[in-house]
């Protein structure tokens, strides 16, 4: 009799465990990104006008992926704000992502993954703490940059207008032109100091030699180390952004769902 009771209790316990297992269901671990584009990767495809004006943007994507973690069969769900072509450079970023696949009870079970690529304006650099800047170096660079004049604004307006939608190209060209009229001279005045701040000690030494030649850093690299040049670009950007956002939407709020197709 006792043995029967024990067997019955054991069976009930086993049933309870089985029922508990059924209620718990399979263990699903969502996919996660193990690699993403770097800040410099995103900066390289940041649309020219949006970057000049410090306008942020977002692109919402949905992709499938391979067992090895490479994205495939991607489609764009939404972009904000529209009209600034944030989506144009996304294809160059997708190869920078690596996914750890979703698992189902410990086994890989790939499923589509939805994510947002954010384009954020550059952060202000820390106070300059590099090699002391000599007036003679600044004077040399100023002579090297003497070719930069008011035509810089016209060139910037042309480049910026080619990176927005057709319906706003003329407006953007005018916005950039007016911003350079207001802030271009001050920006050019800060550039020689900023270039020296961005040069390595070796390049500064070559620059000071008779006939010395150095490759000048890219503008965005200069801005990353020179607080003065960053501030000048901020003032320039504020003119552009305020004028543009008074005419067109600048919100980065993405729709909750993809539009019906």
Helix and strand topology:
Layout: H1 2-24, E1 28-29, E2 32-35, H2 39-45, H3 48-52, E3 57-65, E4 71-80, E5 98-100, E6 103-104, E7 107-108, E8 113-119, H4 135-144, H5 151-161, H6 169-198, H7 201-208, H8 219-225, H9 227-247
Structural features:
alpha+beta, globular, three-stranded antiparallel beta sheet, 47% helix, 261 residues
Describe the structure.
With 261 residues, this protein is an alpha+beta fold. The protein contains nine helices and eight strands. Strands 1-6-7 form a three-stranded antiparallel sheet, with no helix packed on it. A three-stranded antiparallel sheet has the order 4-3-8, with no helix packed on it. The longest helix is centred in the last third of the chain and has 30 residues, at 169-198. It is globular, with a radius of gyration of 28 Å. The N and C termini lie far apart (70 Å).
Radius of gyration: 28 Å
Describe the oligomeric state of these chains in a short phrase.
single chain
Reported for the largest beta sheet, the result is: 3 strands, antiparallel
Name the structural class: alpha+beta
| H/E series | HEEHHEEEEEEHHHHHH
Shape: globular
Distance between the termini: 70 Å
Strand content: 5-15%
Number of helices: 9
Overall pLDDT, averaged?
Answer: 87
Annotation, overall tally of beta strands? 8
Read across the widest sheet, the strand sequence of neighbours is 1-6-7
Give the proportion of residues in helices.
40-55%
């Amino acid at each position: 009799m006792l043995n029967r009771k024990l067997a019955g209790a054991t069976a009930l316990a086993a049933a309870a465990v089985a029922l508990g297992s059924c209620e718990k269901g399979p263990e699903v671990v969502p996919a996660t990104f193990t690699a993403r584009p770097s800040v410099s990767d995103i900066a390289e495809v940041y649309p020219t006008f949006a970057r000049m004006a410090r306008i942020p943007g977002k692109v919402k994507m949905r992709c499938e992926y391979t067992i090895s973690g490479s994205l495939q069969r991607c489609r764009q769900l939404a972009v904000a704000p529209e009209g600034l072509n944030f989506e144009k450079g996304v294809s160059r970023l997708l190869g920078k992502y690596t996914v750890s696949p979703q698992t189902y009870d410990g086994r890989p079970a790939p499923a589509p993954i939805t994510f947002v690529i954010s384009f954020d304006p550059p952060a202000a650099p820390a106070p300059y703490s590099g090699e002391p800047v000599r007036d003679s170096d600044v004077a040399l660079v100023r002579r090297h940059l003497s070719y930069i004049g008011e035509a810089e604004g016209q060139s910037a307006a042309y480049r910026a207008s080619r990176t927005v939608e057709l319906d706003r190209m003329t407006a953007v060209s005018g916005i950039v032109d007016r911003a350079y009229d207001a802030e271009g001279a001050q920006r050019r005045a800060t550039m020689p100091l900023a270039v020296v701040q961005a040069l390595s000690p070796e390049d500064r030494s070559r620059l000071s030699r008779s006939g010395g030649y150095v490759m000048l850093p890219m503008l965005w690299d200069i801005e990353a180390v020179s607080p003065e040049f960053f501030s000048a670009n901020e003032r320039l950007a504020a003119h552009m952004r305020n004028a543009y956002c008074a005419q067109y939407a600048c919100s980065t709020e993405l729709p909750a769902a993809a539009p019906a197709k």
